[in-house]
Design goal:
With 242 residues, this protein is α+β, with helices and mostly antiparallel strands. Helix content is 19%, strand content 24%.
Length: 242
């Protein structure tokens, strides 16, 4: 069934073949062991000038899983800047980041959640390995796999919301306070006024209802972000997810 369709003009970062201007990703709506218990994907690069009404395929769902049946929608894409997943950096680079985070008093100063890979469905940039860890081959020098896109059924979570939560889903920012502990350590907390706490409670109740309604409407559930890669060194191109 169709999942993503992008034109070259909308996603120039994709490695379009010279004779194609339309990218289409389809998947079989059931979990496959060899695809990490995610749907098996197929990718097509097409020339839109050669397509007609007869080119449209009507999905046939045999032995499908309802959670992987997606519904038609439109997106409002935006361009963002992101940086590599933390495990793809060298040990020295990781240490520099951890030391820098320890010196900050800012909920946004969290590389992995707020400054590296953007959560949610995206094209280009860097793969998102949140919750699963990077595969052993992901940082291999000279590997022929190229990252295409990430499919996800959520845009933010409890760690990434300070940076990536959409504006229309914002709740009171509060104030960051550092609480010293008896053992000399410190705990960072977000502090709210009584009015903000009531607003946050109302927001949480409304947002939970909205979240469950959105998930029910969307229908899909991916255990982890699903990164799609292409190997362009072979003919035909092959694809892999991680």
């Amino acid at each position: 069934m169709p999942v993503v369709q992008l034109r070259r003009s909308d996603a120039p970062m994709l490695p379009f073949p010279d004779d194609a201007d339309l990218f289409q990703l389809l998947w079989y709506p059931q979990a496959y062991d060899e695809w990490g218990y995610n749907p098996r994907v197929e990718v097509y690069w097409r020339d839109s000038k050669t397509l007609s009404a007869d080119s449209v395929l009507i999905p046939i769902y045999e032995n499908h899983e309802d959670i992987f049946v997606v519904h038609e929608c439109r997106v409002q894409p935006e361009i963002i800047v992101e940086y590599p997943y933390i495990e793809l950096l060298s040990e020295d680079e990781q240490k520099i980041i951890w030391d820098w985070e320890d010196e900050q008093n800012d909920p946004l100063a969290r590389y992995q959640y707020c400054l590296s890979t953007c959560p949610g469905t995206k094209v280009g940039g860097y793969p998102d390995y949140s919750g699963q860890g990077a595969p052993s081959w992901s940082g291999a020098t000279g590997h022929t796999l190229k990252y295409l896109l990430t499919l996800s059924d959520d845009e933010w979570d409890g760690g990434s919301f300070p940076r990536w939560r959409p504006i229309e889903q914002q709740f009171p920012p509060g104030r960051t306070v550092i609480e010293e502990q008896p053992d000399g350590s410190a705990i960072q907390r977000i502090q709210y006024t009584p009015d903000e706490e009531r607003e946050l409670e109302n927001w949480s109740r409304e947002r939970r209802s909205q979240y469950h309604a959105e998930r029910a409407a969307l229908g899909t559930y991916l255990k982890y972000p699903m990164n799609v890669f292409v190997d362009t060194s072979v003919d035909p191109w092959t694809y892999q997810t991680a």
